[in-house]
Amino acid sequence: MGGPVILQSAISSITLQNVLIWTGVAIVVGLIGFIAYKARLIKGPSIPSAMIFSFYLCFVLTMTIFDRVQSSDFHYELDLFWSYRAIMRGSKTMVEQNILNILMFIPIGAILPVLIKKYNWTVPPLALSLSICIELAQLLTRTGLFELDDIINNTLGALIGYALYLVLAKCRERREVRAKG
Fold first, then answer.
1. For the chain, how many structural domains are there in total?
2. Are 151 and 105 in contact (CB under 8 A)?
3. Residue 5 burial (C-beta neighbours within 10 Å; 0-12, 13-18, 19+)
4. What tens digit of pLDDT does each residue of 91-145 get?
5. Of 4, 49, 72, 149, whose CB has the highest number of CB atoms within 10 Å?
6. Residue 119 carries which DSSP code?
7. Structural domain span for residue 147
8. Which helix (H) or strand (E) holds 163?
9. Separation of alpha carbons 144 and 137, rounded Å
């Protein structure tokens, strides 16, 4: 299986039906957020972020679980860094798969701290937990390969996204300080 096949498989998850479902979930989250805002439980600016996050999470879950064919066996790879050894042996498929796993969680690492500003230090453990949940769901539903390397790559992606958030937040803070002074 060549590298572009993995990317084509991920892109094939983007169907009109799926986008409508993801949008519906985002709207429901927005409505719940609006109700919580009116009840003074949350601040208004987090509603769009919650909608974006829920839309993106639906996309990730569709790509990783819902749009996959169920196999008859449980598949798992508990050999740590096996995909990196495959890359060292020349596997272009593993290069693409690892990069896609990293890229897939960058938005999660960037959006989560917007949602949980006061506790944004929890972003790395939350992203790690989300990745573990996805991998366990793939194992239990027999819709993918449970692998430790995916958990590492997803968490790395979330850390990159979180770092981008921190850099942008610092730039915004400096800009606001200059505007005041």
1. 1
2. no
3. exposed
4. 999 999 999 999 999 999 999 888 887 777 889 999 999 999 999 999 999 998 9
5. 149
6. G
7. 3-180
8. helix 148-180
9. 9
